Structure to design on (147 residues):
């Protein structure tokens, strides 16, 4: 049996969650991002932390949590069940289509990431972001940033 992968220990505080939520608010209607993409932009070592932030949102939040999917383009199942169908319903209402395996077609609906202007305005180090993406060998429609 393989050992369970541990999520790196990161102090999770309100400021970190606010940073994650600010990034998620940039994902436009009809597009999706991955937990890994949000983690990369936020400077986090693990996509799970972005997932924890989404799970911590209070009911009725204006943060568009439903636009964040796993790296397979699927809705991640919740431990406690519940909002999977709500997430799918919201995405479909925005024009996002799922195939018969429950996946979205990233090349059609993937968010390419926040604008350079937004990143600069919000104090992100763009060069560091690009290098981090390259080190993690991120590819896909959303990771076209170049130095």
């Amino acid at each position: 049996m393989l050992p369970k992968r541990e999520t790196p220990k990161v102090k999770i505080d309100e400021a970190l969650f606010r940073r994650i939520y600010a990034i998620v608010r940039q994902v436009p209607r009809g597009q999706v991002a991955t937990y890994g993409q949000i983690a990369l932009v936020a400077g986090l070592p693990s996509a799970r932390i972005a997932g924890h932030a989404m799970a911590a949102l209070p009911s009725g939040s204006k943060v568009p949590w439903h636009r964040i999917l796993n790296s397979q383009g699927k809705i991640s199942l919740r431990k406690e069940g519940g909002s999977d169908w709500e997430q799918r319903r919201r995405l479909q209402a925005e024009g996002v289509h799922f195939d018969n395996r429950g996946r979205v077609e990233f090349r059609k609906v993937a968010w390419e990431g926040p604008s350079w202007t937004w990143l600069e305005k919000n104090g992100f180090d763009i060069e560091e972001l690009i290098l981090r993406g390259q080190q993690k060998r991120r590819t896909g429609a959303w990771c076209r940033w170049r130095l």
Q: What stands out?
A: Residues 1-5 have pLDDT under 50 and may be disordered. The radius of gyration is 15 Å.
